[in-house]
Every structure is written in C-alpha cells, then in structure tokens.
Amino acid sequence: MEIKKYVAAELFDWIVNQEDFVLLDVRNPKEVARFKIEGPDPVEMLNVPYIDFIYEEEKKDSIAKVPAGRIIRVVCAKEGSSQFVAEALIENGFEDVAILKDGIKTWGNLLVPKLICSQENWCLYQFIRPAKASCSYGLISGKRMAIFDPCINVEFYQDFADEIGCKIVKTFETHLQADYISGSQALARDNDAEIIGHANDFKEAAFAYSPVEDRKFYSLDDQGPSVEAIHSPGHTPGSTCYLIDSRYLISGDTVFLVSIGRPDLGGKAQGWSKLLFNTMKTTIAAMDNQLSVLPGHFVNWDEAGSDLVFMDTLGSIKDKNEAIYDIATEEAFFEFIKANMRQQPEEYARIRQINAGLITVDAKEQEIMDLGKNECAASANPS
C-alpha cells in the first residue's frame, strides 16, 4: 500500500502555522521521553507504541486511541513502523494519514534558515535546529561562505552554499562542542575549508586547524565585514565569541538570551566557574550593550522574536538575567553554579572525542548520539 510521506521541514511549517493535525509517535515511551518533537507552538501529540498495533488483541484498542476524522501524521524511529501503523489506520477508515520520511532523525537534523542581516556585499544567516534548541550561523561575502558552529547536517550547509553559488571556505568553532557532533571536519574535508578554533580546546585535535587569536580580525574577502575573535573562557577554557561587523556577537555557549553557559561540563566546575566569572565581569561587561547577541542555544521558544529569530541586545540580556550578572564575587557565582548543577548526558564525553577527531563512530551511531536537546545553560529552568 502506497502511504503518503512528509518531510521534517513540512512538519515544522505545520507547527508554526498551527495546522490542525495529530502527531502520532509510535516509538516506545522511553524513546519519546528522551527526545520528542517540539516546536514554537504546541503540538497535539499522541504516543501509542508500534508494538501495540502488532497483536490483534491489542490492535483494536490501539486504533481506538487515535481520534477518528482527524489528520494523522505518524512518526517513528526509521519509517518502517510508521508505514505499518499507517496502513492499519487506513484499513480501519482513516483517510488523511502520512508518515515522516526516513523517521525521527530527519527532525533531529532539521535546520531552518533565518536571514539576520543583508548588506550590499554580504549577509548573515541564523540556522535554527529545533530538535536540539541550537543555532549555527552562516556568513556570506561575495562567493565565499563561513559557517559558525556547524552541526552534523553538513548536507544542508553544502546545499545552501551551492544554491546561492558560493564556496564554504572557513568554519569557526566557538568551543569544543559536547552536546552535538560538529560538522567542521566533514566540511573541511569536502571543501578544503579552514577550521578555526581556540587551542585551549583543540590542542589535542587529530585534524588540522588554525588556532584562533584573541582580538584578531578575520575576513572572507576584501568586501565583507570583519570578524573579531574574542576569547571568553568559562563554558570551556577555549570558548570564543565572534563579533561580526562590530554589531553581531556570535556568542556560542557563553552568553545565552536566558541564563549563561554552564562551566561544569568538563568536570572542573570550580576552576571553569572562576574563568566564566572573570569573563562575565571583564570581557562581557566591557562590551557595548547595543550589540546584537546571536546565541549557540536557546532554552525555550518564547526567546525568539515574532520572526522566530533568536537575537537580543546585550543590554536587554543583562537586564533579563540580572540575578546572574549582578553576582558580585567568585564565591557567590560558584554557589549559583553548584545550586544549578545537574548530571550531563553520558554521551557528551564521547561527543567531545569525536569533535576532536580522537575517535570515529559510524553514521548510524552518530545519529543516535546526536539526538536530544542540549544541556548547556547554567540554569536548567530559569525564571
């Protein structure tokens, strides 16, 4: 039986446009609890495991749980289970049923481009990754493009560059990522691109990279904007922000719109907390409050503007997070960090090794490791 299929980008649009449908997730409850589909607007979701549709004695009850007469969009791990369930629904009178092509990993890898700035000779994009609550960035100048903190979905960046007729020549890493697998190594290999990152994080990397220099200016060509590297240790010892055209601060996991980056993920909470406190009180404090901050992650969708862009002025961020930025001493700051410390996902240690090129895992395992929301903010549930 031929079943209609939809893709992750369509699902995102349906959520944003608040279309009337039911998302039927047929994975087991444990998998759903670890990673489920969420968007800027509520999703009417129903979890009925695939296995409950297999046996005849349970199949009838399972189908009865799915609201009749509604548009049903099914999702599973890979696609096969969705196909089976969709066929069962159609056989029992459901008319508008479709399955997510290639399964949940396509939602996990979805990137949504948002134009931040367009000038005569250059433009800047934010690439939102809904499943990971993360953002990467693309700076385009003439026929050259740089990606900041690229994720595993290198095919998207490549297609994006090809579509607008430019070549990816650089990737900038704000730090050695722990919560997702970086695309820098693949992009460098496929495009002969330069990887730029701080030696404090990448000194043991098993691939070629250019050590970033604090306050050094980078550019893509003679026409485009300057990119100033600003060493901002704390989340990691090598954390670096990149200031584009003296206006747009790609802050990585140092400055978030809500909260601040965790300094405990490397297992050196007190030492890195001291670094972050110093960054907060010196480097960040000295920055222009009118800078537009472009974060590496977000906590909730309500941080986005009406255009779904995650961006705010530094002054506004300080005001919203004054309980953090007003902490006066290293000791008090560390107490705040300790009060908000929580266990990091166990895969983070291996992801760091992958991102340093120290170990390799196959594509299937990478997909599994890379699923799930980030845990990078210092306060998990900021008020």
Radius of gyration equals: 22 Å
Indicate the low-confidence ranges by residue numbers: none
The percent of residues in helical segments reads: 25-40%
Q: Which descriptor suits the 3D outline?
A: globular
CATH class of the largest domain: Alpha Beta
Number of helices: 14
Overall mean pLDDT stands at 93
Number of strands: 18
Q: Strand order of the main beta sheet, please? A: 6-7-8-9-10-11-12
How far apart the termini lie comes to: 50 Å
Oligomeric form of this entry? single chain
Computed structural class: alpha/beta
- The CATH architecture of the largest domain would be 4-Layer Sandwich
- CATH fourth-tier homologous superfamily of the largest domain: Ribonuclease Z/Hydroxyacylglutathione hydrolase-like
Percent of residues in beta strands?
15-25%
Tally of discrete structural domains: 2
Largest sheet: 7 strands, mixed
Annotated CATH topology of the largest domain? Metallo-beta-lactamase, Chain A
Summarize the structure.
With 383 residues, the protein is an alpha/beta fold.
What does this structure look like?
The protein is α/β, with parallel strands linked by helices. The chain is 31% helix and 21% strand. It has 14 helices and 18 strands. Helix 9 crosses helix 12 (330-340). The longest helix is centred in the C-terminal third of the chain and has 16 residues, at 269-284. The mean pLDDT is 93.
